[in-house]
Write a structure and sequence with these properties.
Helix content is about 45%, strand content about 15%. The protein is α+β, with helices and mostly antiparallel strands.
């Protein structure tokens, strides 16, 4: 929802009537306002059990989608992650066309994804079923005409005999997964996570756990960036370069909205394919000469996401290199470093042998996992070289870039699970519960 706000008497924030009704403040009343310079988040008044217990919000330039999801997963939160995509100019241009705003909502129960919804036509059940070979396009077109209020497409497909109830459930789980993976490819926008119970009417059990979805999402990011580079970047403007016709209907669907003015992101939206599918069809069309692109402007001198999170490794340096710092910026790796130091601090106060206890984790690792923690141990002061974990994962060659970061964070999360197991074994329950709550706040950036 977007609304224009005004300042009333005595500094009151005035919300338009329709938006005020949606927020539950039509009759006035106090709300919680969390502000930062140039931005604020509004938390509506508590309404019994419906109100979220807590929330955190920000922009995707500060935390990426996978980092936010990693935080929710690692802290076993229940709630809904609200995502609004696009730059500020794009979102502002669509204020009067809310149906064109690109939004997704991802629902979690104890850190696991249980449902997702999207405003993107490409994420609707019908297109997802067709893309994955679960439903012929002709059957979708016929059944779509039978959809009406109280009789959604899924029910129509079952009633008409195109899907069984089991196949429909499988299709919905596939839809939820695709909505989530599509969110990973977005790099501009805003997010808000509202913690608290939500309706379970539409919840499903995905075959993959959240940690598996994180890895799949990182691989999706790499593929999107590879394909985008082939066509000149996400902001590349596409135009017809020949009269050749694509072989696939989806590719024809993309070509039909290419006009020499729209960039790739706009074409993805206009064609109803979504960014990932649009790239999959645009790249070969450019290679075949059916489409041509005018590459987007080169990036500014500011650091890219890859530069912010990468760790450089000198191979056979000419001179001894200085000791490498144990932290990686202020992102999730640094958060894990701080958490391990805090866990050690509390545990060591009760157990003199806290370091051997915690380091015993590395001795029991299966052979395949040992290279990830090669040369990594808790020091006597509780420090751990989190950067080395990423170096080790990258050096295996199985992962690179964003996928390597995800695998490294997953490995650190496994070690944290062991450390917290030790906490519960060694500390009295009130102290253990207090530390677990503190770790949860640290993971959410609140401590």
């Amino acid at each position: 929802m977007r609304a224009k706000l005004g300042i009333g008497a005595e500094g009151e924030i005035v919300v338009p009537p329709r938006e005020a009704e949606l927020l539950g403040v039509a009759a006035g009343g106090e709300v919680e306002l969390v502000s930062a310079r140039g931005a604020f988040a509004l938390l509506t008044p508590a309404r019994g059990r419906e109100a979220p217990r807590a929330f955190f919000a920000g922009t995707l330039s500060a935390l990426t989608v996978p980092e936010v999801i990693q935080s929710v997963f690692a802290s076993l939160k229940t709630g809904v992650l609200l995502l609004a995509f696009g730059g500020e100019a794009e979102r502002a241009a669509r204020t009067d066309r809310p149906e064109q705003l690109r939004r997704r909502s991802v629902y979690f129960r104890e850190g696991q994804v249980v449902f997702a919804s999207s405003s993107d036509p490409a994420d609707r059940l019908g297109p997802v079923l067709v893309r994955n070979g679960k439903l012929p396009p002709a059957d979708l077109a016929r059944c779509a005409r039978l959809v009406r209020a109280g009789r959604p497409l899924g029910q129509v497909l079952v009633d008409e005999g195109h899907l069984t109830s089991g196949q429909l459930y499988e299709g919905i789980t596939l839809q939820v997964k695709e909505i989530l993976l599509a969110a990973f490819a977005e790099v501009e926008g805003e997010f808000a996570f509202l913690e608290g119970a939500h309706t379970e009417d539409t919840a499903v059990r995905l075959p993959e756990r959240t940690r598996d979805l994180l890895l799949a999402g990182m691989k999706r990011i790499e593929e999107v960036e590879r394909l985008a580079a082939e066509v000149g970047g996400r902001g590349a403007v596409l135009r017809r370069a020949s009269s050749g016709r694509p072989a696939l209907p989806e590719a024809e669907q993309l070509v039909s909205v290419v006009d020499g003015r729209r960039n790739l992101v706009e074409i993805a939206t206009a064609s109803g394919l979504g960014l990932y599918e649009a790239l999959r069809f645009a790249a070969p069309l450019v290679r075949d000469g059916i489409l041509a692109s005018t590459a987007e402007a080169p990036p500014s001198a500011s650091l890219t996401e890859e530069e912010l999170f990468s760790v450089s490794v000198d191979v056979a340096p000419a001179a001894p290199a200085p000791e490498r710092p144990r932290t990686i910026g202020q992102g999730p790796f640094e958060t894990y470093r701080r958490i391990f130091q805090r866990v050690h601090e509390v545990l060591a106060a009760a157990q003199p042998d806290a370091i051997p206890r915690l380091n015993s984790y590395f001795d029991r690792l299966p052979e395949k996992q040992r290279p990830i923690f090669e040369g990594v141990r808790l020091a006597d002061d509780g420090e751990i070289d989190v950067a080395q974990v990423l170096v080790n994962v990258t050096s295996t060659g199985a992962y690179k870039g964003a996928a390597a970061r995800a695998r490294s964070l997953e490995a650190l999360e496994d070690f944290l699970a062991f450390a917290l197991f030790e906490v519960k074994n060694c500390l009295p329950k009130p102290e253990a519960d207090g530390l677990l709550r503190e770790v949860g706040r640290m993971q959410m950036g609140k401590a």
